[in-house]
């Protein structure tokens, strides 16, 4: 299996963790990503330390408490493929949180360096920007959970629904140069869910000079590391694809560069 693919554990550990990507394990500097699965009544807690965190409630219902805030009975979707925006919670660095599952819960813990500029807050579904991006078989649904227009120190968080037979993160684009205003340097993780779960998605990760050039078969519950390069995704016929993206870098802005060989695809037919 490619070193860019991170597989979940067969069963959660005693704390509920299925996957834990850190800057150290990924070999980069900014993005951390963890998947927690809790049974009803089970709790999970964590000190944020030097990191800000965005808790994305992928499915289920839970209570959340930080040092200064608490929210009860949040959550509405029981499966990401309901395609409704999630509840999320932003937690700053030098804080802590505890979640208590009211149902079976799947929770994503997204992290990056924090600077203490913003307090803990709930991000309700109605605060999530929903858009359709692309056209034809590159059309996909976007949920902007923590875009650059919303307050955070480092994190950018978005989820994408790619219908079967469609492509997303397409045309191929990259954001691996600290060269603003043209391009920003952002590390990125993709966390995949596939419906039906016996299926797969395909992702290519490649650079202009092909020093990195991998084509990946990604299964349900796996994550992909994108340290650099272009990174398009394809959902095969019969299998809908969901992924949660976490990005962070030295500057909190998403400025990408399309692969010049494929940029023409953004022109709709007849233009």
TrEMBL record:
Its EC number is 5.3.1.30. The keyword Lyase does not apply. SUPFAM superfamilies: RmlC-like cupins. The keyword Repeat does not apply. Keywords: Isomerase. InterPro entries: Deoxy-glucuronate_isom_IolB (IPR024203), KduI/IolB_isomerase (IPR021120), RmlC-like_jellyroll (IPR014710), RmlC_Cupin_sf (IPR011051). GO terms for molecular function: 5-deoxy-D-glucuronate isomerase activity. This is 5-deoxy-glucuronate isomerase. It comes from Cohnella silvisoli. The gene is iolB.
